[in-house]
Amino acid sequence: MALENSLFKRFLTLSAFSLTMLLANGCEKSNNVAGEKVNKSPEITASAPAKNVILFIGDGMGVSTVTTGRIFIGQEMGKTGEEHVLSFENFDNVALVKTYNTNAQVPDSAGTATAIMSGYKTNIGTINVEPGKELQGCGTIEGRPTLAQTAARAGKSVGIISSARITHATPAAMFGYADSRSWEADKDIPAKIDRFNCRSLAAQLTDPGTPVNLALGGGAKEFSKTQTEQWASGSENRLYIETGEAFASLDPRDGQDVLGLFTPSHLSFEADRDPKAEPSLSEMTAFAIDNLAMRENEGYVLMVEAGRIDHAHHGGNAYRALKDFQAFDEAIATAVRKAGDDTLILVTADHSHVFTMAGYPKRGNPILGLVQMSETMQEQFGADTPYMPAKDGKPYTTLGYHNGPGDVRNPDSPPLTDNMVQGRDYRQQTAIALNDETHSGEDVPLYATGPGADRVKGVIEQDKIHGIMMKAMQID
Q1: What is the 8-class DSSP label of residue 261?
Q2: For residue 168, how many other CB atoms are within 10 A of its CB?
Q3: What pairing do the DSSP bridges indicate for beta strands 439-440 and 352-353?
Q4: Are 144 and 271 in contact (CB under 8 A)?
Q5: pLDDT tens, 428-454?
Q6: What is the pLDDT of residue 476?
Q7: What are the residues whose beta carbons fall under 8 Å from the beta carbon of 386, sequence distance 6 or more?
């Protein structure tokens, strides 16, 4: 097939031709849409201390997810997509963050969350345990303070929100210690270390002395009845809830400490969520800000994780990853609207994924669809189909994964159709077959607005994010 053999070789020549055509036509599709309202970050005073910090973590939200998510959301709004502006893309301060763990080039969420929240890098799979200092947090073996402990000692309230289990790696790094991120429930503690009095992450969260005031997410199965009763009995001002209806009935102005676990395991993917049974990430964020802000204290620290972006990527399902990214963007927009000028808002990822966007699709091409050529390219090559062919002559998608559970393309693979690849359950094709798609090791973005945001710049180590928060709040 002549088109198949010559298309890529002629692409660079065509690029120059396309640029000429765009200039001749006055660049009819610009990056800015006339009259479009663009989100503005709130007025802030950079030199003033931050009374509050809201840390948003998109689990697995690498640059490819941000770019793809921007286009996905824009296209759902009826735009071509590329020109859309996310809720955090007008933040003035941006940096790139190195994500490696002390013993791993490509990290996991436990080690990266520890770096972000506690200020030191650690081994893959461990939560707030320094390398070579096993069993920290067990019995009388002290560990370095968690972010929740540090904030509470400074007189601040502490909130945790996650669409994953609240004992999962990222939310657990706010409050707990574990040699293994798998120590979520009491049953997960290995018998051989019982003598060291290591406690599960669920037990640490519900301890009467917990520094956490508010925790909303999934994971009820990790907690015993005794533990949830212990939370609720710790104070007359404490509640344990399990349903969306119970959450909807709460008044954040009551200032109650709330543990809300709405599902046995992780919350549903946003694409599958029942709004009556599970609150959205945005709803939980709004409640938390109102609840924590009205307390008579020195401010608050709130961590909000979109944990299921990561899970959808591991499943090789771009649609659900992007829907959860969309919910994350809405939660950030809620925080920008509700938080005052005394609040530092940080948006970052713990790590990225082997998720790619490629193939020279035309402007406005459906982001989940097959790669289509622009009309100019199609005319140039005399093609009888708009779909750009791969070496095998069959069309391919803009989005893909380097590895994972999706089909590995081979000569016998049936031709893909747009109807097929834009389905919500479609797993993008992959180069290497694995049961689960993996993280990747590239740097991730960090966006910031509010007091102390000016420290977010350049290329930084991940553990420096902790210092940015501490300096902003003027905590020694």
Answers
A1: E
A2: 28
A3: antiparallel
A4: no
A5: 999 999 999 999 999 999 999 999 999
A6: 84
A7: 372, 373, 378
* pLDDT computed for residue 22 by the predictor: 36
Q: Which domain holds residue 140?
A: 52-354+441-473
Instruction: Flag whether 17 is in a domain.
Output: no
Alpha-carbon span 416 to 1, nearest angstrom: 18
- R_g over Cα of the chain: 24
314 plus 421 within the same structural domain: no
Active site residues: 109
- Name, in order, each residue with C-beta under 8 angstroms of 251's C-beta and a sequence gap of 6 or more: none
Helices 63-76 and 318-338: crossing angle in degrees, nearest 10, is: 80
Structural domain total, the chain = 2
Beta carbons of 445 and 413 less than 8 angstroms apart: no
Residue 181: strand, helix, or coil: coil
Structure tokens belonging to residue 114? 């520890």
List of residues 6+ apart from 21 with CB closer than 8 A: 376
Structure tokens at 262: 């709405």
Q: What is the pTM of this model?
A: 0.91
Residues of the chain with pLDDT under 70: 1-47, 234
Q: Do 102 and 130 sit in the same domain of this protein?
A: yes
